[in-house]
Amino acid sequence: MYYIPHRNPAGGAMVAVSGLIAAVIAAYAFLMPLTGVNNTAGPLLVILAGVLLIIGGLILRMAVGRGLRITMRILILLALAGTAVAGLLLHQNLIALAMIIGLIGVIIDIIRPGRTAA
Fold first, then answer.
1. 33: helix, coil or strand?
2. Per-residue b or e along 4-17, where b marks 16 or more CB atoms closer than 10 Å to that residue's CB
3. Separation of alpha carbons 10 and 26, rounded Å
4. For the chain, what is the radius of gyration of the CA atoms?
5. Which ranges does the record mark as transmembrane (predicted)?
6. Where would I find the beta strands (DSSP E) of the chain?
7. What range does the domain containing 48 cover?
8. Does residue 53 have a pLDDT over 90?
9. What are the backbone angles phi and psi of residue 107, rounded to the nearest 5°?
10. How many whole angstroms from its chain centre is CA 90?
11. HSE (CB half, 13 Å, CA atoms) of 61?
């Protein structure tokens, strides 16, 4: 009997989109002089975290093995929490809001249907 996993790509896609939103907002904060954090390391770290979230979301979307999915979920949750705190410290509340969207994506990925017999 073969087992075929049901994939729900929406969760990983939401994580990737939240990383993209965070990277764009952080790039704006880094480049615009009136944000108060321009040309500092904080927005650059959030840009890097956003890129890593994009990559993690795409890996989560394509992952089939249970171990890889669990590992990616844990790493993504840590990245979401850290990036949300960084966004709040940078006074960029939209970054924290984007991380909430990513959290919803991880929750969707967790509660997706399990495996069924083919």
1. helix
2. eeeeebebbbbbbb
3. 24
4. 16
5. 12-31, 43-63, 70-88, 94-111
6. 3-4, 116-117
7. 3-34+41-117
8. yes
9. -65, -40
10. 18
11. 17
Phi, psi of 115 (to 5 degrees): -80, 145
Q: How many domains does the chain have?
A: 1
Query: What does the buried/exposed string (b/e) look like for 62-79 if buried means 16 or more CB atoms within 10 Å of the residue's CB?
Result: ebeeeeebeebbeebeeb
How high is the pLDDT of residue 117?
Answer: 46
Determine if the pTM surpasses 0.90. Answer: no
pLDDT tens digit string along 67-110? 999 999 999 999 999 999 999 999 999 999 999 999 999 999 99
pLDDT tens digit sequence for 10-48? 899 999 999 999 999 999 999 999 989 999 999 999 999
